[in-house]
Amino acid sequence: MYFCPMSEYILGIESSCDDTSVAVLQNRKILANVTANQQIHAEYGGVVPELASRAHQQNIVPVVEAALSQAQIKVQNLSAIAFTSGPGLLGSLLVGTSFAKSLALALQIPLIEVNHMQAHVLAHLIDHKNQKTPSFPFLCLTVSGGHTQIVQVNNPYDLKILGETLDDAAGEAFDKAAKIMGLPYPGGPLIDQLAQQGNGQAFTFARPSMTGYNYSFSGLKTNFLYFLQKEMKQNPNFIQENKQDLCASLQGTIIAVLMEKLEAAAQATGIKHIALAGGVSANSGLRKALKARESSLGWETYLPNFEFCTDNGAMIAITGYYKYLKQDFAGLSFSASARKKLALGH
Fold first, then answer.
1. Can you tell me the distance from the alpha carbon of 147 to that of 281, in angstroms, rounded to the nearest whole number?
2. Which domains does the chain have, with CATH numbers?
3. By the 8 A CB rule, do 333 and 148 touch?
4. Most buried of 22, 122, 284, 296 (most Cβ within 10 A)?
């Protein structure tokens, strides 16, 4: 059953990892999208789950208040509360889940659980300046630190995974390679910056061969590590002297692997509307590679605004809005899940 509200206000809460983000949407339009980042993890070279959940507890109330203030609405105006139910760090998810349940109960309004990966994809449906909305069906390459997937999106409720990583994600490969080279966390954006001044053909790294549209990046990480160890024995300054070329070659390899599978999926399905999503969708090389295929393959491509690439409350709110239209609500007994799968065709 569907119904079409005149004007509904959805509060979206994202707390799957280390960012506490809250957004307010009026139907598909953003009124506020506020994020509190956790800088402390840079000291440890990666996200520390216990520290992340503690920071969420400190941040969530002021971030919600800031979002409501920016949206210029009162909490009583909200139509529903949407929250990330997984996948992610369990401690972080529990903070957002518990807060969402409490607020929905206090306001006596619907509670909506949102799959984090579905939200990354549906961020393309946000009505926002300079962002065009893809036509259905479209393919979405979702690339982040924890996930790499090719998803066929038939409508907001019907998503089909065509391929995914069987081990490490592309974003993790970027970050681990950066750590090997001694770059600070998070290293992915730094590799992108350095790659723009490097020669992508300088070095050759392993490209895993996987069946279908699935990915694997663990072998590439190992190959990159062994290559540097070998070169460093002969020249201790090898990384420093070749940092830009190393970044360009590594990034070029990852992008080539990503695009090869995406091209195959597009050809097999006949779909030419192609989108990017996830944190790595902010990568300049990946965005350039996708745009280049508009002329070479006749694709219509869709790049998310940078604020929707990383984890954000707006993507949770837009997914919550579509589930609200379908009256797909969660009960107060609902539990978050660290390894939640993307639900298909419902």
1. 12
2. 9-128+311-325 (3.30.420.40), 138-303 (3.30.420.40)
3. no
4. 22
DSSP state of 217: -
Other beta carbons within 10 Å of 266 = 22
Q: Are 36 and 313 in contact (CB under 8 A)?
A: no
DSSP characters over 70-130: HHT--GGG--EEEEEEESS-HHHHHHHHHHHHHHHHHHT--EEEEEHHHHHHHGGGSB-TT
The residue assigned the tokens 């599978």 is 261
CB distance 122 to 138 below 8 Å: no
Which tokens in the block code for residue 275?
A: 């989108």
Q: How many CB atoms lie within 10 A of CB 63?
A: 23
**Residue 113: helix, strand or coil by DSSP?**
strand
Which tokens hold the place of 71? 């949206």
Gyration radius of the chain over CA positions = 20
Facing residues of 153 across strands?
138, 159
pLDDT digits (tens, 9 = 90+) for 283-323: 999 999 999 999 999 999 999 999 999 999 999 999 999 99
**Amino acid (1-letter code) at residue 287:** R
According to DSSP, residue 285 is labeled H
* Beta strands 273-277; 300-302: pairing state: parallel
pLDDT, tens digit, for every residue of 254-273?
999 999 999 999 999 999 99
pTM above 0.70, yes or no: yes
Q: Among all chains, which residue has been given the structure tokens 């392993």?
A: 206
Q: Where are the alpha helices (DSSP H) in 270-329?
A: 284-297, 313-325
